[in-house]
Amino acid sequence: MVIGNGLLAHAFQSYGENPNAVIFASGVSNSGEVASSEFERERNLFLEVANSRSGLLIYFSTCSIYDAELKNSPYVRHKLEMEALVRTQSQDHLIFRLPQVVGPTSNPHTLTNFFRDRLVSGERFSVWANASRTIIDIDDIRALCNHFIADASVRNRTLNLYPPIATTALDLVRMLERILDLKGDYAVTDRGSSQVVDAPEIAHAAQACGIHFTVSYPEQVLRKYYG
Description:
By secondary structure, the chain is of the alpha/beta class.
């Protein structure tokens, strides 16, 4: 069963008829969200699903909990609360913490869509000079999650699906400028921080899935979806 209709839900649509797993992909889609009603909506929906369905429960959280600039935001606090709720409500679960996911979505709140939209519109925007972000292809998220879901020995764990390649926000913008052949109107501001994420499981899983996290990976992903 799949709960949701966004990028993650579509990526896992093959689980739609699977009675042994529930993919909960109906979370708050805007990491800048501050409305408590949106957080409450997700919480209530999750409780409804958890109380009415059995089987392996999959929940998607965020690696932003490791970011000093973002860890105290309403969104990140909400995600940590949801993680705790998953652990108490399900005796058979996996929590996947994700970095910036890139894929075919019209959601204007994703980082790369935000940059792309500003470059296309010519609207001025800010780029945090000290911010580094890690992006990952939605197809690779699906492959990695399927790998862990298929391994019955991996249960009731929280896994960081975090590639070992960090890219500055400014470099992401410059990559998109090259790909779109556009020059953005932006100001570089002295803000942001880097995430230090421990992800020991991903190297073996990536190798098993045929995923190669090389230095060219970020631009390859951007070209796949924005080229």
